[in-house]
Amino acid sequence: MNLSITDILFRPDAFFGTMMNEKESLKIPALIVLAGSIVAAAYGYLIGGLTAKMMASTVPGIETIITISTIGGALVGTFIFWILWAGIIYALSFAFKGLGSFSRMLQVVGYGYLPQILGSVITLIAATQYIPKITVPTLSSAAMQDPAMIEQTMKAFMHDPAMLELTQITSLITIVFLLWSANIWIFGAKHARQLSPRDSALCVGIPVVLYVLYLIYNIGVM
Amino acid sequence: MKIDQPFAIICLLLLISIVPGIACGYATPESIVAAGKVYISGIDYDPGSFFTGDTGTVTVYVTNGNSNQSVVVNHATIGDTYIRLKSNPYDSSANIGPLQTRTFVFSVAADALEGTYYPTFSLSFRDADSLYYRLVTKVDNTPLELTVVDKPDAYTQDKKKTVYMQVANPRNNMVKNVILDLSGDGADFSPSRVFVGNLGPGEKIPVNFSVTPNKVTPLKLTLNYDNGDNPHRVSMELPVIFGTDKKAANPVISNVQVKNEAGIWHVTGDVNNAGLETANTVMVTSLPPAIPQDPYKVYVVGALKTDDFGSFEVTLTAENTDTIPIKLSYKDADGNVYDSIQDVKISPAAITARNSTSGLPVIPITIGIALLVLFVGGWILYLKRNKK
Questions:
Q1: How many angstroms separate the CA atoms of B44 and B82, rounded?
Q2: What pLDDT, on a 0 to 100 scale, did the predictor assign at position B322?
């Protein structure tokens, strides 16, 4: 395949048109998703560190557990989301009589994850700037017995001004790069499931728009 | 025995010359009248009044009131049983010219108990009888008064306190070289010696000193003074007892509010002086684990009088803690620094409270919606063009 990264990002139609003539391979998409998951894990490590700090005095060793679970969650979660997005688009394409294998769909969605790596890197940079400014409330052992206190503390943590700003910035970056990914996915789905541009746009656009609206709602309710 | 003739003649002439001299020592009416015009024009005592056992001087001024005749005196003395003469009497002849005054100074010792005594001054004239004059001399054993005007209710170890004293002279004569000496085991004085100087009859003078005790000890105050040239002293002891000064300033922190802005905790509140003395240079700051931050690492409230209050604000950061110690310090009138520490709870609710007023984040939502509209609109446009 004689196509570059810039083709995926800026000429996805041509990229996937050429790719369809070649044998299915999930190697490169998996590497792209892996790269995304590593950056996400780094971000998860930073945010998990804050949560660990909040609960440090409640249970001995909980910091390690929280840190490991946030890193693991980010690593695995990215792959789950990859499959989830591919599954949703694949499922919706049935409504438009789409043809083509799920692995091909996984392949195009995997390539479409490329912008989100950039987004994750920018998010990580923003996190390194904001996290030192975040004031982390601490939960005592006694407070851990009180669900209301835990809820109040978590709310306080999420409502820290620096945390709020970081969350808003992260959400906006996610929206920007998710829409970029969606753009790639539309062309990918068109080729992978042999759909018209309109049908493909609907298959990808509906879940993506709903997810973006959810992200915007989250910004509003924080 | 053969007498040398020239020697006999000389002796005879000498005898002849003595005869008129003897004749001149006799009282004449004129000399008696002249002696009658001699009077005591003044008496000085040093000291003005004596303590029992004191020595001093009595100066008698004798004036010849004759305007054109001298008088000759040949003996002067003073004293009685109680006011004893210590110096020799005047035994040589002396001439007091017309309208002249001659001074007779006597050293005396007051061996008497307290009271008024009347020693007699006698002056013998060569050509008349003697002059006798009764002096009035007082023996007064009243010492100087050393009184405490104001002192701390209680002392604090290694804290300087001021004691306000007064030195008064109830005697009817001036005393000299009044010096207050201060001493005490385990106590530092400033100053340790106070020079007052001369103190006239009925006068009083304030004397202040500062004491820094490092243990419970009596303070010894000794007032030294000279009555004439006789040293005397008055002593006093002041007990030093450590305890709580009932009148001390008592700044209290109240109305404490905590909020968090951009990761910086702002602790605000009031400081009320619930004591009876002024709290000077009241300062508020935070202690570890909190880290003071600008703009209010330390807040200087200033001087707080009784029942007065002032507001404060300190800014800090704190991690892994839900309480932060706030230190309040002030100085008393002597510059001693007193500290008190009060824990302030920094609850998550403080952060929530601040952000509950933040409102809807309009800008991020607008940007998010704009991005979405741009994406959907772009695709609709693309599809329309593609359809054509």
A1: 18
A2: 74
